[in-house]
Amino acid sequence: MKTAKNYKFWFCTGSQDLYGDECLRKVAEHSRIIVEELNKSGVLPFELVWKPTLITNELIRKTFNEANADEECAGVITWMHTFSPAKSWILGLKEYRKPLCHLHTQFNKEIPYDTIDMDFMNENQSAHGGREYGHIVTRMGIERKVIVGHWADRNVQERIASWMRTAVGIVESSHIRVCRIADNMRNVAVTEGDKVEAQIKFGWEVDSYPVNEIADYVNDVSKGDVDTLVDEYYSKYDIILEGRDPEEFKRHVAVQAQIEIGFEKFLEEKGYQAIVTHFGDLGSLQQLPGLAIQRLMEKGYGFGAEGDWKTAAMVRLMKIMTAGMKDAKGTSMMEDYTYNLVPGKEGILQSHMLEVCPSIADGRIGIKVCPLSMGNREDPARLVFTSKAGPAIATSLIDLGDRFRLIINDVECKKVEKPMPKLPVGSAFWTPQPNLATGAEAWILAGGAHHTAFTYDLTAEQMGDWAAAMGIEAVYIDKDTNIRNFKNELRWNEAAFRK
Questions:
Q1: Helices and strands counted in the chain (H then E)
Q2: pLDDT (tens digit per residue) in 61-87
Q3: What gap in Å lies between CA 100 and CA 103, rounded to an integer?
Q4: Is the peptide bond preceding residue 434 cis, with omega within 30 degrees of 0?
């Protein structure tokens, strides 16, 4: 599945004609240089496209509407080189529909103490113009990212790069379609939610299909295609028989290969980028999809278990936001399972009964075939591994009835103290910030789910910016969290986000 698109971002410079043509020539020259150097930096994940200096109401409006119409444009970065009267921006901003970043920078890094004069002051008024522009964007209530600093500084470039990935997530959110196979797990609350409101807020389309409609696609897969994929499995993964007959083992693996091919064909033909299954309704499927779902996630599909369409969409969103990222460590659906409460070694063992994405694996990946009490089907094949170590985030999007809330927890993934040879699933072990007790208490107070959309490759800031662009509440659980302040924040949010 293709996750990366050829998105571009427009760089729009604001000015006005009060200081004459020579000043405007320098504004355009400086703007071009900044765009060229940022593109050459190797830091930005997407190309920056220079646009002519915006000095009139008409040109600003025309440029923003062209950005709206350009399918390759994922957002606009604005820079006020000189003073740009903000009333000129009102109509353009009012009609603009894509992510917006205000880069508050200036061409020169240092004040030219020996030569500075009024001509220089007039031509280099970013400190002045950025405030005029910022005022009108705030007054209009438009969500945007503000990045402050010199454009050549690595930290500023990395913040622009980070925002670009969030912007792509904002744009791509409206393209996410989730295929629900069967319904939610009975009597489970957190995987439910208002799908109509989700489409209004996020643009997600969530549709349901009877399981046998997709099972027909599985049954139609040819033996030759199955054999080819099984050969790929056997060349790529370690085969862990654990005493099972090799031929019987291979037949179980072949079932998952057939499911992977059939499911992928169904999703491609129907135009879905995420899928939800439920072990309680498997129809004519021989096994609960395990290895097959793991492989689909690795290809970029979102996934949620037991009807959890919100997690499926969030996993897909994160896959899109991290597409093409150098040295990416992985993104997956996860579930909280069991604690380690030994003092000094606290943490949560994360896994699922089958479906953990192998993109997060550290080292070799194996295939096992093991019994599964849920689903009432034959023993499913699955990929087994342990996750990478390092910082990551776990997120939970929940429906509170009158609004959505995104909970974002910084976590530290660690290696488990001892091997777990009898655990036949992919797993991770992490400690939530600021510590297990406070992190878990805050998560529960916020109403967080047991399923999470987890990634090593995005930050809490990026996901919070996405939530802000969607107009929903975001709460952060991190190194600075304490319960008294956290409870107050939830109370304030209750008032701020009330419909």
A1: 15, 19
A2: 999 999 999 999 999 999 999 888 899
A3: 10
A4: yes
